[in-house]
Amino acid sequence: MKTKHWYDYLWLWCIAYFVLGFFNILFAWLGMIDFMVPLLFAIIGGNKAFCNRYCGRSQLLTKIGIDCKCSRNVPTPRFMSSKWFRYGFLAFFMTMFGSMLLQTYKVFSGAKTLSESVKLLWTFKVPWDWAYQAGSTADWVAQFAFGFYSVMLTSAIIGMIMMFLFKPRSWCAFCPMGSMTQIICKLKQHEPIL
Amino acid sequence: MKRLAFVDKNRCVSCGACMKVCPMGAISVWRGCYSVVDEQKCVGCGKCANICPAGCIEVKAREVIA
User: Is residue A78 part of a domain?
Assistant: First the structure.
């Protein structure tokens, strides 16, 4: 039996994030931690310590997939871990992230009004108005929270589907954060990225 | 027959799933780039190959050194 470390419980953080955002969307801003920390590890430390140790999402997927036996545990389709698919998905994800930032800017500049909804899988608009009291903060702050929560929930849903269908951590094969940090690490070590 | 895990470095996504399941502490992620196997420690159990989301680990027979 391996000794448990404090970071082996970060799957609780993953659950807490979604619960908090369900009740108050402004908590979605905390997701910036999951966005910045992996990049800082990669840029400063030249490692993927976040993926390797601290990623609560991968821990949760492993828990549900292995401990709760919810994963079929069959090999991930090979194309999903190919470079073109991984980098392609990273590009798509960043484009969608950019579009989310643009929406935030539009609300900031007054060109658009705040939309109290969460967009799932970049397509389905789900009302989420109970999680925000209008006027409690600047509209763009709330718009970013709704947008960021959408990004987090969408990727969690894809991760769950992948976990059910294939290996518990199949999402990791093309997780945009994983791809991005690996590219940074490889560039630092002068390893080929293609 | 003695066995050993082999990593396809080019396909590895360096997620570290293998490192977490290895009972011998024989596999680690090298500077965020790919996993490397410590041949001295690996017993060829195949747990890493089973968990790998990229399917880039294969357990093969060790080369016999005469």
Answer: yes
CATH code for the part of the protein at B3-61: 3.30.70.20
> Which residues constitute the domain of residue A138?
6-188
Identify the burial level of A163 via C-beta atoms within 10 angstroms of its C-beta, where 0-12 means exposed, 13-18 middle and 19 or more buried. buried
Residue A62 within any structural domain of the chain: yes
Q: What sign does the CA torsion over A70, A168, A17, A2 have? A: positive
The domain total for chain A is 1
The 10s digit of each residue's pLDDT in A32-66 is: 999 999 999 999 999 999 999 999 999 999 999 99
Please tell me the predicted confidence (pLDDT) of residue A193. 93
DSSP E strand boundaries for A81-143 = 117-120, 124-127
Are A185 and B31 within 8 A, CB to CB? yes
Q: What pLDDT does residue A86 have?
A: 97
Q: Which positions 19-48 of B are in contact with A (Cβ < 8 Å)?
A: 19-20, 29, 31-34
pLDDT digits 0-9 by tens, A136-175:
999 999 999 999 999 999 999 999 999 999 999 999 999 9
